[in-house]
Design brief:
mainly alpha; electron transfer activity; 2% strand; transmembrane helix; 76% helix
């Protein structure tokens, strides 16, 4: 049952990065869109994420519940030493969701819409930034359980060159996913070209920030190169990601957009595999050489049995309902139903 729970944990993180990441990325694209095209970008984005924007956070909730119930030592360590970036990320999620709701469903359209838009776009940037910072902090050996002062325990546990670089890389990946997804949401050639251009810019930014991640890892002694290129799985995954990227841009040049989302999702999946496979099951790497392992630091066997059964049974109800939600809204959109409020 432990392996079932670990699979659900990995899948929930993966789905949150793919679906929630594209969701955040749409706000990032809006932030960096010219005023003249911002309304068009906003309308296209709402058509794409409007039906399921809140459902995306379900994957984050599942991951948190799994850690809280099944791996309490790992959960408590992360929530204590990374409580500052976690709080910022959660506040960003709340602010973003609130602004999204008010700017689309507010009964009165007035100057407050400008404030809602700013909160939405900036929180769309801040939230994945700190999500990436948290991810980078868990594997960068910066969490120090023996720290005896506030800065070492609660600030320098996450504030490092590597963690910030991972955060910026996460932002670029989210923007790239959103641009690729939104290409298929418009039939207007002008808008399609705009999103293709944004996808290219986000892709270039991802390459630059990716280089920054490798530079930071080298400077801070993090064996990132070994994690990626020191095993057959990592080499195969990074090769597949590179080849799929070449194919993606080839299809873009040919004007074929049907499989772009699959290719973009595949690339992110391969990147996730390359960065997690080598140090699995160590989900948190501590300062001084210690680690927290999914195989060692888990809860009681009876707790794992109950959690595993709850996840298996819950998925039987949640997943079909979610797929039907997406299908029903896509069908309405295809029929020309207006979802704007």
């Amino acid at each position: 049952m432990l392996y079932v729970i670990i699979c659900f944990l990995w899948a929930s993180i993966w789905l949150y990065l793919l679906l929630g990441g594209a969701d955040f990325g749409a706000g990032i694209l809006e932030l960096f869109t010219s005023k003249g095209n911002r309304d068009k970008t906003r309308d296209t984005m709402y058509q794409a994420i409007g039906p399921v924007w809140e459902a995306n956070h379900m994957w984050l909730i599942i991951a948190i519940v799994i850690l809280f119930v099944g791996f309490p030592v790992i959960y408590s360590t992360m929530s204590v030493y990374l409580h500052i970036p976690l709080t910022v990320m959660l506040l960003g999620i709340i602010a973003r969701g609130t602004a999204f709701a008010f700017r689309h469903y507010d009964a009165v359209v007035d100057d407050m819409q400008v404030l809602y838009n700013r909160i939405f776009t900036w929180s769309s940037l801040i939230t994945p930034l700190f999500l990436g910072i948290i991810a980078g902090s868990t594997v960068s050996s910066t969490i120090n359980p023996d720290a005896n002062n506030f800065l070492d325990a609660y600030v320098f546990s996450w504030l490092s060159f590597f963690s910030v670089a991972v955060g910026l890389f996460t932002v670029a990946i989210c923007a790239f996913l959103a641009a690729i997804y939104l290409i298929g949401e418009t039939n207007n050639d002008t808008d399609k070209k705009r999103f293709i251009s944004k996808a290219r810019i986000a892709n270039i930014a991802a390459v630059i920030f990716g280089g920054m991640v490798f530079t930071a890892a080298w400077k801070e002694g993090i064996p990132l190169v070994d994690w990626i290129f020191g095993n057959a799985v990592g080499i195969a995954a990074i090769t597949a990601a590179s080849l799929s990227l070449v194919l993606l841009w080839y299809l873009l040049l040919k004007g074929k957009t049907k499989v772009l989302r699959i290719l973009a999702g595949f690339q992110v999946t391969m990147i996730l595999i390359t960065t997690t496979f080598k140090h699995f099951p160590n989900i948190v790497i501590l300062k001084g050489g210690g680690h927290l392992s999914l195989m060692e630091h888990h809860g009681h066997d009876k707790t794992l049995q109950a959690l595993g059964m709850a996840l298996l049974l819950g998925s039987l109800f949640i997943l079909p309902a979610l797929f039907y939600l997406i299908y029903s809204f896509q069908k309405k959109t295809a029929a020309g139903t207006d979802h704007h409020h």
